[in-house]
Each structure stands twice: as C-alpha cells, then as structure tokens.
C-alpha cells in the first residue's frame, strides 16, 4: 500500500490492514510491538478491535496447534501463556525470534516478481490523520544530586538542609 507516512496515524494504518486482511483472509496476523516513528503501540490492538479477532500482545513465543495458537508473553511476575482461536492477531516482542537474512540470489529473484500496489482509498481509508503534533520540547533541567560519604552525613543533610526528618 503506497501512502505518505506523514498522513497516516495508527487508526488509518489499522483500517488499511483490515482491508488487506479482509481481501487475503489470513489466519494469523503478525505485527511488531510498536511503531518505530512514534513508539505508539496501537495498530495491533486497533486492528484486533476492527476485525473482532483475538489478540496476543508482546509475544516472546508462539505455538500454533490446529485452529488454536498459544502466545507466551513476559509480564512483571514471569511468563503468561494465553490461547487464542484462529484467526488471531499477535504483536511480537524482540525475543520472539532471530531474523534470518535472505541470500542475494533470492533477493534478485524477488525483484522480478510483480507487485500489486494499492492506495489507502482502495480500502476506503482517507489518509489524513486527525492527530497533530503541537510541540515537542526537552524536559526541564534538574539540579545535580549530592553525593554523601556516610549515613551520618545523609541524616545530617536530611535533618538540617531538606528538613524532612
């Protein structure tokens, strides 16, 4: 799908992907965890809502068995495994796999294959995001901290300077 990236927000991308999924009918849709440009982590969840499909997020392991898929993800307390019915959407964590690299002869063969190019309007999507960046600014500078040499010095500073004890 050819589009101007600056005009696409997460919702527009999810709607385009929904059009592709409706046309292709895949059983398993794999997406990255978050966008590289704005770090938003929204497209997978929005696509799941638009399709009404189950979703497993932040997958570090995936196992497909028949018409089910098990997704293991890391959480604060360890690992969590969920089971989803296909079709399903999975957003991946960097631990899911190690990428393999295509050999040069295969790259050359792929260049000769015809590409079916589409535009967002082919999927009924108006490529005009409703989000606008108002401003971006650095955080306020903070004062440097003070190192103390002993617990006694720390207690003294907390008592007399900070007046918190």
UniProtKB/TrEMBL annotation:
Residues 1-127 form the Electron transfer flavoprotein alpha/beta-subunit N-terminal domain. SMART domains: ETF. Keywords: Electron transport, Transport. InterPro entries: ET-Flavoprotein_bsu_CS, ETF_a/b_N, ETF_b, Rossmann-like_a/b/a_fold. One of its GO terms (molecular function) is electron transfer activity. Belongs to the ETF beta-subunit/FixA family. This is Electron transfer flavoprotein small subunit.
């Amino acid at each position: 799908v050819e589009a101007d990236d600056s005009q696409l927000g997460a919702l527009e991308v999810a709607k385009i992907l929904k059009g592709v999924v409706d046309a292709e009918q895949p059983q398993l849709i794999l997406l990255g965890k978050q966008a590289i440009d704005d770090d938003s982590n929204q497209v997978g969840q929005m696509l799941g809502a638009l399709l009404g499909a189950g979703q497993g997020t932040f997958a570090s392991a995936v196992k497909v068995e028949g018409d089910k898929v098990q997704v293991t993800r890391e959480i604060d307390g360890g690992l969590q495994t969920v089971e989803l019915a296909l079709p399903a959407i999975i957003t991946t964590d960097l631990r899911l796999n190690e990428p393999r690299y295509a050999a040069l002869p295969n790259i050359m063969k792929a260049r000769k294959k015809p590409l079916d190019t589409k535009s967002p309007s082919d999927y009924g999507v108006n490529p005009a995001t409703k989000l606008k960046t108002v401003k971006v600014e650095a955080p306020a500078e903070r004062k440097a901290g003070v190192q103390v040499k002993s617990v006694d010095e720390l207690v003294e500073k907390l008592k007399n300077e900070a007046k918190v004890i």
